[in-house]
Amino acid sequence: MSRKLLIKGGIVVCPAQNIEEKLDILVEGERIIGLKKDIRDKEAKTLDVKGKLVTPGWIDMHCHLREPGREDIGTIESGSKSAAAGGYTSIACMPNTDPVVDNQMGIEYILSRAKAVGFIHLLPIGALTKGLNGEELTEISTLVEAGAVALSDDENSIMDSYLMRRALEYMTMFDIPIIAHCEDRNLSEEGCVNEGLVSTMMGFRGIPSIAEEIMVSRDIILTEFTQSRLHMAHVSTKASVELIRKAKAEGVRVTSEVTPHHFTLTDTDILESNYNTHFKVSPPLRSKEDQHAVIEGLKDGTIDTIATDHNPWLDMEKDVEFIHAPFGIISIETALPLIFTRLITPKHLTLMEAIAKVTCNPAGILNLSKGTLSKGSVADITVIDPHMELSITQDFFHSISKNSPFIGQTMKGFAVYTLVEGEIVFDRHENTFYKRH
Amino acid sequence: MNQVQFKQKHLLGLAELSKEEIELILSTAVPMKQIFTRSVKKVPVLRGKTVVNLFYEPSTRTRTSFEIAAKRLSADVINVTPSTSSISKGESLVDTAKTLEAMNSDIIVVRHKASGAPHFLARRASSPIINGGDGFHEHPSQALLDLFTIKEKKGDIKDLKIAIVGDILHSRVSRSDIIGIHKLGGEVRVVGPPTLIPKDIEKLGCSVYHRLEDALEGIDVIYCLRIQTERQTHKLFPSVTEYTRLYAINEARLKLAKKDAIVMHPGPMNRGIELSADVAYSDRSTITEQVTNGIAIRMAIFFLLLGGGRSVQEITD
Q1: Which of A184, A165, A298 is CA-nearest to residue A227?
Q2: Which whole-number Å values give the CA distances from B116 to A204, A323, B183, in the listed order?
Q3: Å from A316 to nearest chain B CA?
Q4: Percent share of chain B, pLDDT over 90
């Protein structure tokens, strides 16, 4: 007999089904078998979630785990725990590990480690070029068959337009997208922060917004020309948003994401931080105007999804002069409160719109049958207490690395239960993780 | 006499100083300079204190100037110049700071090619940090000696027109000078090719010119910056020859400024590139006075950071 779980008394928010009302969910085994008012089932164990929000399990399209290669910074286990604590049930991890995930073995390694670790689903992203060298395409069909959900060279933006054209063209015979980190590296070379008053005042070479926008333009042109599709990672500038908006209106199949830090912070925060390297990230934190534009992009659907770009680094590596510090922020455990307090509370997005950006929208882009609480679907579920307040300290994080610019703040809105395939993998009240059976 | 208290623990940049604090440093340097004319050029103010000059970038004049300033106040001076090969990564900056801390240094003067390195040290060290120049960020003691020199020559800085000419992009001196002059009510024009003007610099309170001839009209002070010839690899301007043709200060161009305009340079100068030799050695040039004033300013900085709140009269009388 399969175990049953009754999730009772919460407000179900499921954008895939356009539902936002008080409903109970009945889970049997790993699937949802009931979604309606006042379910009663004597055999089921009850999880009381009165006053909480119940959403499909959150999906992060973009994060960095450090395994294999740098297990001292982050492992598949620590990354999975961070994600589960952040309310995520599926995360897509970038291939820039050591070795690079550019072959079947790499994909299989990640999938098997995720299974052994037993908390959440890992969705491996394969490299687009061998060794991320930007020269030679990987064995794409093998990666797809092994289970890659997308292909990307991430921060090694493909500078060669010919290669990008051929890659996009070739990908039209598969169902997974390329994810492009749009950056003309000649324009951004040696830059540390957004080019503008802040780079001038801090005495840094700037990373101009055009370094991103030129590549966004090029990739839109190539995507249209090849009749392919492309997902643009961590969009950060006003003109990028405008270019994508226009491309979408013209029917070009581009999608895009923004990170929580880009809709929350600006380059002025770096200036005020007095050279705090936890604010150093790629793309760099931009201007107020850019921040406003990405929020507008989220509102009108130009930006489809919120992805964390969770990127751990050790204190030792970040605790150096700003120009020597690596780019990256750990963001998967603070994404949820930032979405609630920065987007939903000020009414930039409705609750339903915001939840869509982290559930059905990324599922759609990656062609996954996830991101819904409909009857029959896998019971990946996030239960949120939108009123819970916590101080963000080093100890708050389950990540091995603690490189967050939000340390010292108090945040509101947290996942209290994270369920994967019908089992609780994270319980905030107990602060405990449970391995799936 | 001095109503303003110097409350800063460190001297990291002019951005952190108020107008009153800048004026306090400048006025403190006046009696310091008088010490130079005595037969015994030394006062026992900082006897028993240890000043560490931690210079990660080669520098002769700034390091020497800090050293002389400290010695004239009777401090002990240690010069630390880590070999440049071993310090390209920041970990050793943390370690060096800890080591110096353990040796009970009283104040650390740091020069570093990474912008923000002094701020990095200031967060970790218990002793005061003086920024001796960081990356393209700030060079506060240089700007203070420049302000002191301008005041000596021109009186009040308020309403003076000052043109800063050259490589603004890579210049920490220009950033500190712009901020300082702006705070004291002077007008700054920065002059250079568009590729050497950093973005949004006008928001620091200056106007931007590309044609030197336009910028020099009505100017009281011409401040030439050193051109770093190796930067040409960044394709920012075609050649030193072309730079000189467009931006060198020579007799003819000097005539476009006010009759009594002075010419300044932070040194070391590329003679014949930023400045023609005849101008550099003319009585309009303040280059050697800047060097002398640098010692007085650095004495004032040491005194205000380490002097324990004593009045300057007490020590110079």
Answers
A1: A165
A2: 9, 9, 22
A3: 8
A4: 74
Domains in chain A, please, with CATH? 4-54+377-433 (2.30.40.10), 57-365 (3.20.20.140)
Q: Which residues of B touch A316 (CB under 8 A)?
A: 91
Q: What is the pLDDT of residue B3?
A: 53
Which pLDDT value is given to residue A273? 95
What is the mean pLDDT of the segment spanning A35-58? Answer: 97
Cα A342 from Cα A198, distance rounded (Å) = 23
Return the residue of A nearest to B120 by Cα.
A321
Interchain pair A321, B117: CB under 8 A: yes
pLDDT over 50 at B85, yes or no: no
- All residues of chain B having their beta carbon less than 8 Å from the beta carbon of residue A197 are 199-200, 203-204
Residues in CB range of B85: below 8 A, 6 or more apart: none
Cβ within 8 Å, pair B137-A321 = no
Taken in order of first residue, the domains within chain B and their CATH numbers are 14-138+291-316 (3.40.50.1370), 140-286 (3.40.50.1370)
Rounded Cα distance between B191 and B186, Å, is: 16
| Cβ count near A116 (within 10 Å) | 10
pLDDT of residue B92: 73
Active site residue A269: no
In angstroms, the separation between the Cα of residue B6 and the nearest Cα of chain A is 21
**Cα dist from A241 to A146, A184, A410, whole Å:** 34, 17, 30
Cβ contact B114–A324 (<8 Å): yes
Share of chain A above pLDDT 90, in %: 98
| Numbered residues of chain B with Cβ closer than 8 Å to any chain A Cβ | 15, 88-91, 93-94, 112, 114-117, 119-120, 123, 134-138, 172, 175, 198-201, 203-204
Over the stretch A244-278, which tens digit does the pLDDT of each residue have? 999 999 999 999 999 999 999 999 999 999 999 99
Q: Which residues contact A279 (CB under 8 A, 6 or more apart)?
A: A265, A269, A270, A273, A285, A329, A405
Q: What value does the mean pLDDT take over residues A175-184?
A: 97
Note the pLDDT of residue B25: 97
